[in-house]
Amino acid sequence: MLLSLLRLFGLLLPALIPSWRFFKTVAPSPRVEYRLFYRGSWGEWCEDRPRPARIGTLQMIRRLFWNPAWNEQLFMVSCSERLIDTPTVHSAAELARRIAQTLPEHEVDFQFRLVFLSREEDQIIKSVEYESARISRAEALA
């Protein structure tokens, strides 16, 4: 009985703790920022779906089993990485659509960009790798 339990645990362990060799490269992920065009001028850049500053223990345990918001965030990171590596209309449209879904209901134009953060000595440097054209919320959702 104990041997079969250990064998079962040995089979589950790689699924629970994946190997870093699974990834081709380990590099910084792009962050998605957007700004709104309102009353004839552009607003400030804001991070799309910012991470919470603190997560409680129960919420953390729940997120291990059910976290659709994080899955969508991972999909957006994947689209962002593809947009940087090999730009396609699909990746840009997916990012625009998902950002537009979180914007206020009224008609608004927006713009998004992809930024990378890097550390140089004691400073954090933000570099913009992609910046979209002006996008209508209605067109992004169509």
Structure overview:
- By secondary structure, the chain is an alpha+beta fold.
- The chain has one domain.
- The chain contains 5 helices and 6 strands, in the order H-E-E-E-H-H-H-E-E-E-H.
- It has helices at residues 2-16, 57-65, 68-85, 89-102, 137-141; strands spanning 31-38, 41-42, 46-47, 109-120, 123-131, 135-136.
- Strands 1, 2, 3, 4, 5 and 6 form a 6-stranded antiparallel beta sheet that branches.
- The protein is elongated.
Question: What attributes does this structure have?
Answer:
single chain, about 140 residues, alpha+beta, 5 helices, elongated
User: Which structural class fits the helix and strand makeup?
Assistant: alpha+beta
The mean pLDDT is 84
Q: Give, in order, the helices and strands.
A: HEEEHHHEEEH
Radius of gyration, in Å, reads 20 Å
Q: Please, how many helices? A: 5
Instruction: Please give the largest β-sheet.
Output: 6 strands, antiparallel
CA(first)-CA(last) distance = 57 Å
Q: Number of DSSP strands?
A: 6
Number of domains: 1
Give the percentage of residues in beta strands: 15-25%
Low-confidence stretches: none
Shape descriptor: elongated
Q: Helix fraction? A: 40-55%
Quick rundown:
With 142 residues, the chain is α+β, with helices and mostly antiparallel strands. Helix content is 43%, strand content 25%.
Write the topology of this structure.
Elements: H1 2-16, E1 31-38, E2 41-42, E3 46-47, H2 57-65, H3 68-85, H4 89-102, E4 109-120, E5 123-131, E6 135-136, H5 137-141
Antiparallel strand pairs: 1-2, 1-3, 1-4, 4-5, 4-6
Helix pairs in contact: 3-4
